């Protein structure tokens, strides 16, 4: 399997490209601010053909480049319906100060937008992505898992040593704890977590060291591997 990525723009949002191997079809996850050039570079380097963009949530720093990336290649974007409005109204994701900070930025939906559902399995680029609805950072936050590879694209649910903020519109701290308990804690320790910001980690490392996962643990049922 090929997974390549880079931190995009001022927000340093991790954008990923995933394919079975070089020279194959691929999926792009979270093309953020000024990500188009970096995506193009990865596609050329690995001779990849993108078939879809997957969005972990609708915040501007994760969706900034989705319309141009999709439009240039006539591919769909997938997002949870609870965050779809943020594709064309990015300021709505940032509260009262959003209009002041981002009011001059005009974004639009890609021509083809498909909606994600919890538990859905997306067969894309020869891979199967399992969708987990993980609200708390936003109402429509999701993570994507490749169960056969023990890999999780966590968006802003879980970081190395931390979790996503919950003080923006649609955020809720008890809700994100429930998402961590139900979607992260049951995963095997060797599951690799590729977050929306910062370095990769593993579920086992976060289970042992992340104070937020420790706080979430009482909300979880018996720990068991899920697929």
From TrEMBL:
> What InterPro entries does the annotation carry?
MBL_Glyoxalase_II, Metallo-B-lactamas, RibonucZ/Hydroxyglut_hydro
Q: Does the keyword S-adenosyl-L-methionine apply?
A: no
User: Which keywords describe this protein according to UniProt?
Assistant: Hydrolase, Metal-binding, Zinc
Q: Which Gene3D superfamilies match?
A: Ribonuclease Z/Hydroxyacylglutathione hydrolase-like (3.60.15.10)
Record keyword RNA-binding present = no
What are the Metallo-beta-lactamase domain coordinates in residue numbering?
12-197
Residue ranges of coiled coil: none
Q: Which SMART domains match?
A: Lactamase_B
Q: So which cofactors does this thing need? A: Zn(2+)
Q: Name one Pfam family in it.
A: Lactamase_B
Q: What is this protein called?
A: MBL fold metallo-hydrolase
